[in-house]
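User: Design a sequence. Structure:
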């Protein structure tokens, strides 16, 4: 069966795609060129204008403020549930390859020959398993925090040590209206101006809030509050619900608040432009002087799902390399929660290939 996946991170997790290739553009290049021509024409017709639509004009999108808070609380609830599922009394075993990024949920690591790490040739591409953790189940890449996302959207190379880094999804929530202590953010009351494509702010200091260090974080909604005494099955259901709410809310935010990623590595930056820090070490970085090749990000760039092979039983025999075409895959967080007792979400049922009957090892060469 052929799997058609457009997202680069999903392709890599499914073992497809080649190293060194650029990620596909979520928006076709012809559409990007058309938008650039329209913006250039608009600047020529009206070189000095006040931007009207948020968040490009420096103001918040009112309808997305509550969404940003829900995404943040859903992430906190997810991490709390995962910590109990992985390190609790009835812990679900998580395995991590010592030499590559492969992850497996189960007591015995699989025997599928897919390792591309150091000295994999001498091991016949077999993985070397060790204990994994929460970061192996779900990945949250870090980015630079922007105090003013409109007038100062870029971080220079010399500024890299003086600016805080935090999970990109948290930075997205902050730019969308979430107020967190220790992360000051400029909140305007009046829109900014665009003069020949450059953003200019004519407002006085009294027209915006300097920071939000003294503001208290709103309490989480009832469904995201930490509850004691939950069973493993209840924790898994809570984790799946938080995962789905976090992803759906983040996709709503990304439709208004731009997020960019490097076309060759996993670096992410929330804001209208990428930073100028020379830290890329992926393919062809020498031709870019270490700068990232920024392009539009997808939800899997912001929240790395880390796909794993689905197992029918945690205590069952390890997955065989000869049978890999019969096995399904799913994000590690979904596989973990399903093994802990949560029902399979509808959108992942086909990926896990639950309707496929796996033949025995002595029968696989007899099956078409």
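Assistant: Done.
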């Amino acid at each position: 069966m052929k799997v058609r996946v457009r997202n680069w991170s999903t392709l890599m997790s499914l073992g497809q795609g080649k190293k060194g290739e650029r990620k596909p553009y979520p928006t076709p290049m012809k559409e990007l060129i058309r938008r650039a021509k329209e913006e250039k024409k608009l600047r020529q017709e009206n070189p000095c204008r006040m931007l009207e639509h948020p968040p490009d004009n420096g103001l918040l999108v009112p309808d997305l403020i509550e969404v940003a808070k829900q995404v943040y609380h859903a992430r906190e609830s997810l991490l709390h549930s995962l910590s109990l599922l992985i390190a609790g009394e009835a812990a679900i075993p998580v395995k991590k390859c010592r030499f590559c990024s492969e992850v497996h949920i189960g007591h015995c690591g699989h025997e599928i020959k897919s390792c591309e790490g150091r000295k994999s040739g001498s091991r016949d591409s077999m993985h070397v398993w060790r204990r994994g953790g929460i970061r192996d189940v779900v990945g949250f890449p870090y980015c630079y925090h922007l105090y003013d996302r409109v007038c100062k959207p870029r971080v220079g190379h010399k500024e890299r040590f003086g600016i805080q880094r935090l999970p990109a999804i948290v930075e997205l929530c902050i730019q969308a209206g979430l107020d967190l202590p220790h992360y000051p953010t400029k909140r305007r009351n009046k829109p900014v101006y665009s003069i020949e494509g450059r953003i200019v702010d004519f407002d006085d200091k009294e027209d915006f809030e300097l920071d939000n260090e003294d503001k208290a974080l709103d309490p989480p909604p009832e469904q995201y509050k930490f509850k004691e005494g939950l069973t493993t099955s209840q924790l898994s259901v809570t984790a799946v619900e938080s995962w789905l709410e976090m992803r759906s809310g983040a996709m709503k935010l990304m439709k208004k608040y731009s997020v960019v990623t490097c076309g060759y590595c996993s670096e992410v930056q929330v804001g209208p432009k990428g930073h100028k820090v020379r830290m890329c070490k992926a393919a062809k970085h020498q031709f870019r002087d270490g700068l990232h090749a920024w392009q539009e990000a997808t939800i899997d760039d912001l929240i790395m799902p880390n796909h794993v092979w689905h197992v029918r039983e945690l205590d069952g025999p390890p997955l065989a390399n000869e049978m890999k075409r019969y096995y399904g895959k799913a994000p590690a967080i979904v596989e973990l929660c399903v093994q802990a007792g949560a029902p399979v979400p509808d959108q992942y049922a086909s990926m896990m290939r639950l309707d496929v009957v796996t033949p025995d090892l002595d029968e696989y060469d007899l099956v078409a």
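The mean pLDDT is 86. The chain is about 25% helix and 10% strand.
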